[in-house]
Amino acid sequence: MSLYDHSPAGRPADPFADAEVVLDVDGLVKHFPLTQGIIFQRKIGAVKAVDGVSFQLRKGETLGIVGESGCGKSTLAKLLMRLEEPDEGSIRFGGEDFLAVKGEELRKLRRKIQVIFQDPYTSLNPRMSVGDIIGEPFRLHPDAKPAQGIRPRVKELLDLVGLNPDHINRYPHQFSGGQRQRIGIARGLALNPEVIICDEPVSALDVSVQAQVMNLLEDLQSELGLSYIFIAHDLSVVRHISDRVGVMYLGKLAEIGTEQEIYQAPAHPYTQALLSAVPVPDPTLRGQREQIVLKGDPPNPANPPSGCRFRTRCWMATDLCETQVPELITRPGITQQAACHYAKANEDVTA
Amino acid sequence: MDQTQPATGQAKNGHGPLLEVKDLQVEFRTKAGVAQAINGLNFTLNAGETLAILGESGSGKSVTAQTIMGILDMPPGHIAGGEIRYRGEDLLTMPAEKRRKLRGASISMIFQDALSSLNPVLPVGWQIAEMFRVHRGMKRKEARQKSIEMMRRVGIPAAEERVGDFPHQFSGGMRQRIMIAMAIALDPDVLIADEPTTALDVTVQAQVMRLLKELQVEYNMGLILITHDLGVVADVADKIAVMYAGRVMETADVYEIYRQPAHPYTRGLLQSIPRVDGQEDRLKAIPGLPPMLTDMPPGCPFNPRCEFATDRCRTERPELRQVASGHTSACHYAEKIHTLEEAQNEPV
Description:
heterodimer; A: alpha/beta; Rossmann fold; 8-stranded mixed β-sheet; 4-stranded antiparallel β-sheet; 10 helices; 22% strand; B: alpha/beta; 14 helices; 12 strands; 34% helix; globular; ABC_transporter-like_CS (chain A); transport (chain A); ATP binding (chain A)
């Protein structure tokens, strides 16, 4: 894209600039209706969970999506999987209109997008053995059945994610959290997907195990050429794993750019506040980092503020922010896209 | 003689440490066997000081908090030995009635999940006021006034109007503030915060930690912060105890431990976390898993995951011993680990 062609000196160029676009999301909208009454359910409003999100995911790339609870990042994941149908917008997958396909065709296309869930304790059926869990995708997609048979393939997958293939007959409760997450990853890999949506894949894990799973995800990416959408609330984790990062606030992207752009020169005040609030594991920086402590809580997504959604908590808000919705565009002086009228790169937020 | 009055706010100049835990042993007697949840815990806490107890799930950090508070479920929990001295008096041998008076008034606690810790069917103002009614014998009206005051102190906007609201009407950050209001209502000497910000978003976490820190200075409380977050610890703690599998692996001053850890576990943790202010190529993960408490490996509990482990570590359990002034480590090779980081840190 032209956006990345003229990056200023000193900032590394986007290594995926020429890569093929696997997922092209444009203007995605999902509103959940709020109803009142028992028999005649009148619609009295809508929770604007996702309200106009656009981005592109390129082959081999990891796009991180960060945001606080309620910002719509998990709804976005569901829309991308077509577990929820969007109200508006388009999703093109490998050039094909993903929202138009139906029936058998959809099933075939769905193989290419798989998901890894947050909680390895509830996302695995406790009554199924590991072999059944990882082999289930083949039963649902009989034409994708591996030539060597399901069990050998399951053993191969177990080996790939660093589990002992001999444990194929064990049940989820016999595994620890980190191992269960590996089972979830093996299941996601079973059908040779191109895109994996990771919805908070390491949030439920202990610190020492978190690193193991993140390293595994990175290894699998380089080995299998996967593209990831990595949804998480932990900014440090997202920084580590992502090539590009999108920051969500109340159903909209506030800012999107490469990892360096977002973390070293965030332009949207929300990104700046978010980054400054992350504690850094270094006591010598105590009191030296300028912390922007935001007032209040995120507003109710059923009734977002007019204009810029962040303006009620923003220290720079003016009348313009109240009346005009800032578009997500590249603004003068910055290379990433930011949805702020006054977007200005700020380099000393995390330093 | 030690003072026997429960602290009333003024009595804050006791002798010796505010809280002293000596060789505490807690076990859980389950069908699967005896789980040693805490195995020989020692620490001291002074007024105005922040001690962080750092550990992963199953390390015994929450059991520590519950044991000090005296809210451990017994059975299956069982205190097998040790002392918890508050201003010189052992809480474990104290009559239950006396301990009950201290609980909440002199030693109080903030829990992780405010929604499940608050009573959903009572207004928050009533729940805060309960502290004053029960411990101070205040009349309802007076207690209500006090609870409005407390809500204001912890930064809840429009406290007079919100005093009658129920917990579900507040956001997560506000609920945690209400928990804090209850905990500090009676001006405690020791505040135990068990993962106080884990359930909160980053921006709200920053608000709550700032509030806790302010209140600690204002009331000169000893704060025990129980957490797994190395970032939060670096921000607020004075000293740290790192726990693993029910044992303290290392204790040190906060600056010392981040600069020069003397235990392979602490070192591994510090190397395995991604940082928001830097880009590392690859995380150095600690291999393996924490041991089951019912099935502890012989020798050092960390030996199966330790890159420095030798035969000695597999047979002989290392005791917590001093490595440098104010720095202890339970590793046979603590001195070696301690100097590992020196080479790269010194020339800066």
